[in-house]
Amino acid sequence: MNTSSSSPHLRCDDVEPGPVRHVRVIGGLSECPGCGLYQRLPDLDPGQQASCVRCGQKLARRRRTAPLATPLAFCISSAAFYLAALASSLMTLDVYGRQRTVDLLTGPMELMHEGWGEAGVLVGAVTILAPAIAIGFMFAILYAASCRQLPDWAPRVLVWYDKLRPWSMVEVYILGIFVAYTKLTDMAHVDVGPAVYLIGALMLTMAATDSTLDTEMIWRHRRIDSLTRAEGDQAVEVDYVHVDDVGMPPVDHLVACTSCGLVGELAHPVSNLTCVGICPRCEHKVWRRLPQSLTRTTAFLIAAIVFYIPANLYPVMTFMRMGGGGGHTIVEGAIELWMDGMIPLSLLVFFASITVPMLKIASLGWMVWQTWHGARGHLVARTRLFRVVDMVGRWSMIDVFMISILVAVVRFNAMASVTANAGMVAFAAVVVLTLLGAWSFDPRIMWDAAGRNGRVVDGLPPSVLRAQVTRDPGQTTPSPSLSPVGTGPASMEPDQA
Ligand SMILES: [Zn+2]
Ligand SMILES: [Zn+2]
């Protein structure tokens, strides 16, 4: 840890039950972000990953690839593909000899011209702005990781990158283009522009950058030394020990940083409800659980349900051709594709636009309800369902992207035109609200509410729990069964009470 003016410190003014005078950072220990179980994290060899022994959540992995050169190569490619995509055309539509060419920017601009400013800004932000910032942040992170001492600004950029990355929806946009293209080939001649292939390539290189970047390596690169820093009249010392040397501290004295995963031990039990201080490694505020997780998720969920009704009742767009046609809703759009014989595409739209939002609202509602009531059943299933909901939520944007492209390209006055309708804005609101609902939900509180994160975890002292190590990341699915150090899977009480 450095000792400059911006050096990491613990803030003492808002800590319960007494001021923090000393914090011990515990190495070799990890808290599962899925269920809140503290467990030992063994050193990993390249190509290995560690998963939670209770819920199967991935805790850490080590890449086989070169830690800096590989993501840098992909990041440079991403930047090149991104700039080329911005400068080239997306699609050219030919209706009876009249042509119209659009690029990436046309869709958001046309939505704004038509008076759907919120939707235009949203589409522009997640398809143009967010990828650009993500690529810029990644360059900064890789530069920082190549320095001998990690610069002070680097942890914050890494934290912001993690927050921003899900908003970059290039891969969903590709599917939106595909659905729009299929709808258009039905009525006119469509030429696909180079931007489509460039966005496809950008999707692959951005995914490859993420999968080859070793954030664990970067955090390890930032040393944690003992530090005494006065805040007001308080001095806070931080020292570093390894769990193998000191043994497992009492679980209720432990707190893990939600941004970088650093585990610290305080001299007294830590409340779930108050900010403990500032992380001595990434300078993020440390809370034992995400603040107001349950109430925030409930609020987002209620708002999403309110918007869900107009999103399905009102037309999302109006397709006029030679004086005929009319508005259609999300469901009618999927049915129309089915009637036109495009059954796989119709199923895709049905899944992304109808099943996923319903699944998200119903699942989050079930989790919130169970947590409010302290239910003890189906905890592993609920935690896994949360991971699925978290992963698939962005794909519902397909319809919004498709409409933004159609609105931009089909503008031939009386011959053919597409306009967006109020249903699309309500639908986009449902998608964004359910995303925010999922991101503000802390799945660990389900286990807290069921009383499964106490000093004794499911009949075993937490000191014997160790993360499960498997080979070939992404190909092995570890079965969640609690296993003590040095022995096989333990016989545990079943998950359901
Ligand atoms: Zn877990
Ligand atoms: Zn941290």
Automatic annotation (TrEMBL):
Pfam families linked: PqiA
Compartment(s) where it occurs, according to its Swiss-Prot or TrEMBL record: Cell inner membrane
Protein name: Paraquat-inducible protein A
Biased composition (Polar residues): 473-484
Principal location listed in the UniProt entry: membrane
Annotated keywords: Cell inner membrane, Cell membrane, Membrane, Transmembrane, Transmembrane helix
Transmembrane regions: 68-91, 119-143, 164-182, 194-213, 298-317, 337-359, 392-412, 418-439
Organism, as annotated: Komagataeibacter europaeus (Gluconacetobacter europaeus)
UniProt region (Disordered), positions on chain: 469-497
Keyword Transmembrane among UniProt keywords: yes
GO cellular component: plasma membrane
